[in-house]
């Protein structure tokens, strides 16, 4: 007989967005299955989704994660889903300058189509790559500060910060839907920074 009682959160939708090839599908597969999809790159068509339940304190937080197609020709499909997203993980690729430059356009689009209070987190993916890196971590931090969104670098290949990115978002969403009246506001960036410091900078 298991006496532990879990509370269950309402379903939270988390949408992965960003240019084609930045690693959205790989990030989701790493988070869900703990594996890296090596080999040929197969672009997502339209939209795909996976469910995951995370335990945050004594609460089961249900996430439905939508993996969108980054290719321009699927953009109208993505637009239709923004409205129902509770959180957005916006990715660029640290080895692809254009994907970083396009973040401003993605943020404009988010502003136009998503709910006003949507949780947005900027992720600089492929941080495992050293020789081909063209976007410095500081540049990602600066852009994120400018738009007032939390930021971290990730790697779907090594697993760096992948769990942390989803945990931070799940905590924020849990806090929003199940906050005790006297509980202080959850500070997402502070939580991320603290977790990274505790893990000695970077965690996989
Ligand atoms: N080195 C490295 N390669 C990665 C990483 N994440 C993804 N890749 C590679 O980048 C390519 C594109 O990854 P996907 O996850 O399919 O990209 P996507 O953003 O889902 O692309 P679309 O479906 O077209 O929007 C693949 O060849 C992956 O192996 C990473 O963290 N590090």
Blueprint of the fold:
Blueprint lengths: L6 E2 L3 E6 L6 H10 L13 E10 L2 E10 L6 H8 L4 E7 L3 H5 L1 H11 L5 E7 L11 H11 L3 E3 L8 H17 L9 H11 L6
Parallel strand pairs: 1-4, 2-4, 2-5, 5-6, 6-7
Antiparallel strand pairs: 3-4
Helix pairs in contact: 6-7
Guanosine-5'-triphosphate binds next to helix 1.
Would you mind describing this structure in some detail?
With 204 residues, the chain is of the alpha/beta class. It has one domain (11-201): P-loop containing nucleotide triphosphate hydrolases (Rossmann fold, 3-Layer(aba) Sandwich), CATH 3.40.50. It contains 7 helices and 7 strands. The chain has helices at residues 24-33, 75-82, 97-101, 103-113, 137-147, 162-178, 188-198; strands at 7-8, 12-17, 47-56, 59-68, 87-93, 119-125, 151-153. Strands 1, 2, 3, 4, 5, 6 and 7 form a 7-stranded mixed β-sheet that branches. Helix 6 packs antiparallel against helix 7 (188-198). The chain is globular and about 45 Å long. The termini are far apart. The model has no long low-confidence stretch (mean pLDDT 90).
